[in-house]
Amino acid sequence: MQTYKYRIADLNVLITFIHSKIDGTLLLESLEPFRVEELDGELLFELLVDDSYKVIPKEHCERIKVFDTGNGDTVVDLLDDGGYQFIIKDTNKASCALLQTNKDFSKCRCALNGNFSMRNFGLNNVLMLVYAFAAARRNTVLIHASVVRKGGYGYPFIAKSGTGKSTQVSMWLRHIPGCDLMNDDNPIVRFVDGECWIYGSPWSGKTPCYRNVRAKLGAVTRINRSEKNYVEQQPPIKAFASLLPSCSSMKWDKEVYDLICNTVTRIVEHVDIYTLHCQPNAEAAQVCYKGIAAKNETNVEITA
User: Residues with Cβ < 8 Å from 29, sequence gap 6 or more?
Assistant: First the structure.
């Protein structure tokens, strides 16, 4: 038995391997910056990893849907006790992980399958999924974004895949002094004591940026390709509609979905949401920085 303790965005996670064929530390490499010796406070969730777990037969569950995540299919079943069963497959349609949860995702178990790459893919998807839905009850959302930090504030960029989130952040890193990359795919946003914070996470897409850091959420910016570079602030209704699709959610679970919608509403109430109409160039970064960061910093300095 191998047990590992983590604090991710100041929330406690416990992972235990039983009868595992591979050393857990190898599968959890991206979580290492979040590892702690002791956990202070209650658990967000506990995950047992045991390859002996079997699929619950269809007479004890109801098929919700098969989702194409872009990296493979995820099969979702509702269990008789109100919990869930997920079967996570890769792009070759091979089953990499079986996940079974209770209703609030606080108690979970999974079985991994295949070679190291498949198991690593399956476990990381399991952990990201469980974290997103367990944390919904803690005023927390996991968003699909690339986020840069400047002057104590985090600025996430959201957009459809391939539209230019990472490109815009790279322009900030090159042309705006004092910036650093917090996360390139799945940062975490939380309300803590009435303030909105953004955190690095163990999930960062193709960029290995697994940083245990946080910053106040400065603004959220959606990327829109355009011939001209300019920033447009979104009114509340459009801001909500712009941000919600970027958050990990379960529309079929009304309780979880309502919690996520409530957190997105709070973000919109506390933080400005913008659209950056832009080309992928240095001028766009300069225009964006002036447009979204000026109110957070007394001295705005940029270089060409």
Answer: none
Question: 111-164, pLDDT tens digit by residue?
Answer: 999 999 999 999 999 999 999 999 999 999 999 999 999 999 999 999 987 777
The two tokens of residue 225 are: 């390709």
Q: How far apart are CA 80 and CA 90, in angstroms?
A: 27
- At 298, is the pLDDT very low, low, confident or very high (cuts 50, 70, 90)? low
- SS3 call for 14: strand
Backbone phi, then psi, for 303, in 5-degree steps?
-130, 150
**Rounded CA gap, 44 and 119, in Å?**
23
Rg of the Cα trace of the chain? 20
For 40-72, b where at least 16 C-beta lie within 10 A, e where not — what string? eeeebbbbbbebebeeeeeeebeebeeeeeeeb
Q: What is the pTM of this model?
A: 0.93
